[in-house]
Amino acid sequence: MGSKERTALILIVDDEEKIRRALHSILTSRKYKITLAKDGEEAIDMAIDNTPDLIILDLSLPGLSGVEVCHELRSWYTGPILILTVHSTDQDKVKALDSGADDYLTKPFSAAELLARIRALLRRASQNIAPMAVITFKDMEIDIGRRTVKIADKEVELTRTEFDILAYLAQNTDRVLTSKMILEKVWGPNYIEDTRTLRVHMSNLRKKIEPDPDVPRYIMTEPGVGYRFTPTPSDNYKS
């Protein structure tokens, strides 16, 4: 674990004391610094007083809801927000992500997965200090300025829309992007309901960049929610 991860300050926001204790135990054992909040108002005050590197936020909170807290934080806070909740419906996930969350994990959760999500979010945050003109992931190179993509030093021909989708996903590595977010970014606000068009373009993009489009290595589908770009092969990927 790098120095950034060892010294990262994480704010845990959950109204259940046993969850706060469990998360505190898991994360302090990995040398993270921890602050705890039991409701939304306290979380906002603590974040203002001592800005955390990452926030773990429950959706079901007394007073302000997790979505309201997320929306309020996003008026100034630029660090990653990980939703940790019992709410597992697609609607809940999409609402949280659209309000500004970067990722979500449902309860019950495994410590290993939680730590992996935290590492990914902190890694992405540390790399996003300034927009990158060229993004590289092992054998893939995405040149934002020249609008080119190379895999294993071989250029891949993408349409303008396919490139815009890939660039947006790659600039948000390991973050779940809802279909609405991608449609609004690439097509504009008048197309946020056109998920069929997005699925068609995503299918075409995968055929061009994935070694096996049926078992994606780069672009993962979050069922009912959206998509996630990850340079690390999934557990199901077979080289």
UniProtKB/TrEMBL annotation:
GO terms, molecular function: phosphorelay response regulator activity; transcription cis-regulatory region binding
- PROSITE patterns the record matches: OMPR_PHOB, RESPONSE_REGULATORY
Q: Which Pfam families does this chain map to?
A: Response_reg, Trans_reg_C
Q: Which residues bind DNA?
A: 132-231
Q: Where is the OmpR/PhoB-type domain?
A: 132-231
A GO CC term attached to the entry:
protein-DNA complex
What keywords are annotated for this sequence in UniProt? DNA-binding, Phosphoprotein, Transcription, Transcription regulation, Two-component regulatory system
* Chain positions with 4-aspartylphosphate modification: 58
Question: What are the GO BP annotations of this UniProt entry?
Answer: regulation of DNA-templated transcription
Q: What region holds the Response regulatory domain?
A: 9-122
| Protein name per the record | DNA-binding response regulator
What broad taxonomic lineage does this protein's source fall under?
Bacteria, Bacillati, Saganbacteria
